[in-house]
Amino acid sequence: MLGTLMLSVGGMVLTGCDHIHGRPGPGPEVVRPEEVLDFPTLYQQNCAACHGTNGKGGAAISLANPVYLAVSGEGPLQNTIAKGVSGKLMPPFAQSAGGMLTDRQIEVLAKGILQTWGTPNLLAGQNPPPYVATLTGDAEHGQQAFTTSCAHCHGDTGEGTKSGSHKLGSIVDPSYLSLISDQDLRSILIAGRPDEGMPDWRSDSSQPLTDQQITDITTWLASKRVSDPGQPYRTHP
Fold first, then answer.
1. What are phi and psi of 150, to 5 degrees?
2. 3-state DSSP helix/strand/coil % of the chain, to nearest 5
3. What's the N-to-C CA distance of the chain in angstroms?
4. Whether residue 152 is found in the same domain as residue 183
5. Residue 1: its pLDDT value, please?
6. Does 158 share its domain with 101?
7. How many alpha carbons fall within 13 Å on the CB side of residue 175?
8. What pLDDT is attached to residue 164?
9. Predicted TM-score (pTM) of this structure
10. Most buried among 55, 100, 120, 134, by the most CB within 10 A?
């Protein structure tokens, strides 16, 4: 009898442990960072802080701009995410460039940005200026084009306007120019800033801006950079 009881208890110990009240079940599956392929998650973790939660309203260029996405396309987006912008605030995200994301994750980000905020065939038949400059810029001609097409909002010298319906800050401020790349300046001239009321290249003036004018204005703005931005007091010999 005693032996039978011991066998019964032993059987309970061996076969019934999984049913004991309070024993923790299996935990959630752990996903390694490099295995995350969900666009919203990747975007929030890597892009939203600078480009805004919904692709706009951040410190960096707006991604929720269909014209910008139509002009840039997937290739340049992927390249910028992977390699960053040297000397500016956009860091490289590819593991091969010192970042944390795999090539597949970068591809998911680029495709997701286009699918979320892009408009297919938006500029079909409109011959927009190329995303990357192919012409040589002339700063003097750029200032002339700026005065004609941009000064009514940004002021004759780009230092902003303080009266009227458009009250904008300086776009030739050395600190601002030290943070933005030539490519971003060009991208804004082409695609505008719809979140801030700035039109794209087609409606800056009575005539659309040409590729040469955009290149020249970018060159003129870039010429306003200084070697010591943010330093109002310079030491003179």
1. -125, -20
2. 50, 0, 50
3. 106
4. yes
5. 46
6. no
7. 5
8. 59
9. 0.81
10. 55
DSSP result, 13-76: HHHSGGGSTT---PPPPPPPGGG---HHHHHHHHTHHHH-TTSSSSSS--S--HHHHHHH-HHH
The DSSP output letter for 127 is -
Residue owning tokens 């939203």 = 48
Q: What is the pLDDT of residue 25?
A: 61
Structural domain that includes position 47: 38-117
If one counts the domains in the chain, the total is 2
In a domain, 230, yes or no: no
Residue corresponding to tokens 């049913």: 19
- Angle (CA) 109-63-212 rounded to 5° is 115
Residue-wise pLDDT tens digits, 11-66:
444 444 444 455 666 666 788 989 999 999 999 999 999 999 999 999 899 999 99
Position 9 in a domain = no
- Size of the chain, expressed as the number of residues it contains: 237
Evaluate whether residue 29 is within a structural domain: no
Residue 153: give its domain's CATH number.
1.10.760.10
d(CA 237, CA 222): 27
> Do residues 113 and 150 share a domain?
no
What is the CB neighbour count within 10 angstroms for residue 2?
A: 6
185 vs 18: CA distance, rounded Å: 64
